[in-house]
Amino acid sequence: MQINIRKDDFIYPYFVVSGKNKKEKIKNFPGVYRFSVDSLLKDIEESKRLGLKKILLFGVPDKRDIRDNIVASAVRKIKDEFDDLIVMTDVCLCAYTSHGHCGILKAQSVIIDSRKTLEALVKIAVSHAEAGADFVAPSAMARKQVFAIRKALDARGFKDTKIMGYSAKFVSNFYGPFRNVADSAPKFGDRSAYQLNFADAKNAAREIEDDIKEGADIVMVKPALAYLDIIRTAKEKFNVPVAAYNVSGEYSFVKYGAKQGLWDEKKMVFEIMTAIKRAGADVIISYHAKDVAKWLS
Ligand code: PBG
User: Fold this and answer.
1) Tens digit of pLDDT for each residue in 175-209?
2) How far is the CA of 180 from the centre of ligand 1 (A)?
3) φ, ψ of residue 238 in degrees (nearest 5)
4) Strands (E), the chain
5) Rounded CA gap, 109 and 134, in Å?
6) Does 175 contact ligand 1 (Cβ within 6 A)?
7) Predicted structure pTM score
8) CB of 248 closer than 6 A to ligand 1?
9) CA of 170 relative to ligand 1 center, distance in Å
């Protein structure tokens, strides 16, 4: 069967900062910006006009404090303005902790304090649901995060708020440009205590299965292009929609290569998106989404 790329295949990521009238460039991440909410609303308007219907929101707080709630306030304004837009929110701590790890650590270590981390993630997820998020997307890779969030959402009457689990998230070099967005690279150590080892595919399948058992409505594989086999396994083994995250490094490869005249950007993007879909992705989170929507218009 011939695979066609459609606008509906995409989730477009956005980064939100406090302030007014901001559209800030990001180092090594061409075409992607940090928006204040007012500018964000204008950009979403444009994305919608181009035919995109799903966004994934990341918060970039002023101070590294897990009580910051820039995402919830952005979601409220987005939901006030647009009624037919699916709003998903990233739920993680790496942009909010002083050390840049995805969870709260036990003293003097890179060992995640599971209880405190889950407590913080649940609080954030509930605040996003209260603001009107359609999906929350826990990405801390904390054990039982989907279960804890599902339970808390149900207990507070948010049965319709869905969960997209960052189920198989690998320790990856492809996250480079993203870490310039929120300065979220770990200040010490790495993420190997909680993200997956790319040399081990079995573990990934287990993580995906766990997330489904815990109540994930969509499971995600991240990154996408170097992990097509994992996407395929997820699609074949389980009966839940599979999202693939075409991450910042994959995106920048294409952009910088095109700038150097190594390839045609549009052709390259369509080849990559087709490959990700062919592997089994039902939906693709991609910074290319807006360009693709333009090309398809
Ligand atoms: C953090 C997070 C990362 C990305 C999304 N959420 C980076 C990381 O794990 O360091 C990367 C996305 C991208 O590279 O586009 N939880």
Assistant:
1) 999 988 877 788 888 889 888 999 999 999 999 99
2) 10
3) -125, 165
4) 10-17, 23-25, 33-36, 54-59, 86-91, 135-138, 162-169, 218-222, 242-246, 283-286
5) 35
6) yes
7) 0.96
8) yes
9) 10
